[in-house]
Amino acid sequence: KAGVTQTPRYLIKTRGQQVTLSCSPISGHRSVSWYQQTPGQGLQFLFEYFSETQRNKGNFPGRFSGRQFSNSRSEMNVSTLELGDSALYLCASSLGQGIDEQYFGPGTRLTVT
Amino acid sequence: ELKVEQNPLFLSMQEGKNYTIYCNYSTTSDRLYWYRQDPGKSLESLFVLLSNGAVKQEGRLMASLDTKARLSTLHITAAVHDLSATYFCAVEPQDWAGGTSYGKLTFGQGTILTVHP
Asked: Quick one: closest CA in B to A92, which residue?
């Protein structure tokens, strides 16, 4: 069974630009969660999607948004990038119901200059 | 707000020694996860602990959960160099309706483990 995939793996952007990251979950998984990992703040939950609906959201500004498609693939978008958005962005997939383990993708390393 | 605290944050061990990493959390939960992360890599699931008193073992690692004390431990037995990594615990809060937290894990700060020959 293929694991969670994320594209691109590395990205360099300039302040003020926007970026879109993609996550393809494990086949059969309908929930996708996104996390930001930085040295200073650690791992923080961004949001979770299930069946194209956002069910949960962390404490991030509105510049961070996401969506999920009917095939469960998910994208997250960050607009008006700031230097502090430089991070490893991880997505995790799960079945989305009941007691449920999350499986993490390899991450996208975003650098904002 | 759920808080998850790990200690120690840095652990330098000699091969062959034993040690324990502690994970304390601040709210009711009976779902706790341990992950391993190698430098520049993603998170690898180690253990899923789903009830009070749960104990799981894999190789030199053993994890346990005490929901009453809101404490989980990750015990390392006879450490080897290959165990060098960062270890995270993560808690899935239990909402009062008894449902799920909808994918939201709250992570500890991570424990950087270095095993020396």
From this structure: B103
